[in-house]
């Protein structure tokens, strides 16, 4: 008789990883960042623009943040991840749980097609758009994205709240304490 949890053919679900790495140092193949209308360079997008030689200033006029919009950006070896994917959620004032979940499900199908692993995600709609809270944004990621990835947030308190309040399986990948 096999021990519980070791049944033949059943694989344990791979965990999502919570990380406090800064975006440019996240060990992923792709970093996915949500955008909204009107497009702006707040928060993580400002950091992206600054670290990649004003890339958004150069291509920004074409980025709207519309639902379904996808912009793939090469990091040219300036970030650990070689690619960044900006995905549009639509108008900021229309953000809701349903809208974000719909766009995450659409994104999930597209990510499966390109098959890059692992994918790191900022919490959708949470920073800098301040829709909902970090825990709710993390729940939406787990509902909308079928393959585990990395959830990136530099605030360890936020990561711990997600770990303890979201039903899922998480590991941590924390940067070393400065010392």
Textual characterization of the structure:
- With 179 residues, the chain is an alpha/beta fold.
- It has a single domain (16-172), classed as Leucine Aminopeptidase, subunit E, domain 1.
- It has helices spanning 44-51, 55-59, 97-114, 134-144, 156-165; strands at residues 16-19, 30-37, 70-74, 83-91, 119-122, 150-152, 170-173.
- It has a seven-stranded mixed sheet, covered by helices on one side.
- Helix 4 links the parallel strand 5 and strand 6.
- Helix 3 (97-114) crosses helix 4 and helix 4 (134-144) crosses helix 5 (156-165).
- The radius of gyration is 17 Å and the shape is globular.
CATH class: Alpha Beta
Judging from the principal axes of the Cα atoms, what is the shape?
globular
Q: Approximately what portion of the residues adopt beta-strand conformation?
A: 15-25%
**Level-2 CATH architecture:** 3-Layer(aba) Sandwich
Main sheet: strand order: 3-4-2-5-6-1-7
| Parts with pLDDT < 50 across at least 5 consecutive residues | 1-7
Q: What's the N-to-C terminus distance?
A: 50 Å
Structural class: alpha/beta
What is the fold-level CATH name, i.e. the topology? Leucine Aminopeptidase, subunit E, domain 1
């Amino acid at each position: 008789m096999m021990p519980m949890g070791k049944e033949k053919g059943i694989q344990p679900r791979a965990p999502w990883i919570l990380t406090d790495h800064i975006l440019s140092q996240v060990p992923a193949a792709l970093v996915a960042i949500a955008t909204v209308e009107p497009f702006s360079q707040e928060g993580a997008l400002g950091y992206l623009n600054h670290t990649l030689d004003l890339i958004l200033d150069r291509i920004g006029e074409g980025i709207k943040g519309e639902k379904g919009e996808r912009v793939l950006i090469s990091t040219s070896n300036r970030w650990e991840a070689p690619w960044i994917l900006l995905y549009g959620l639509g108008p900021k004032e229309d953000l809701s749980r349903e809208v974000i979940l719909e766009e995450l499900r659409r994104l999930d199908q597209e990510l499966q097609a390109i098959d890059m692993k692992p994918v790191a995600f900022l919490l959708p709609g949470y920073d800098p758009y301040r829709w909902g809270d970090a825990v709710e944004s993390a729940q939406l990621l787990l509902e909308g994205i079928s393959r585990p990835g990395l959830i990136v947030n530099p605030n360890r308190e936020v990561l711990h709240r997600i770990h303890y309040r979201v039903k899922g399986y998480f590991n941590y990948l924390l940067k070393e304490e400065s010392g």
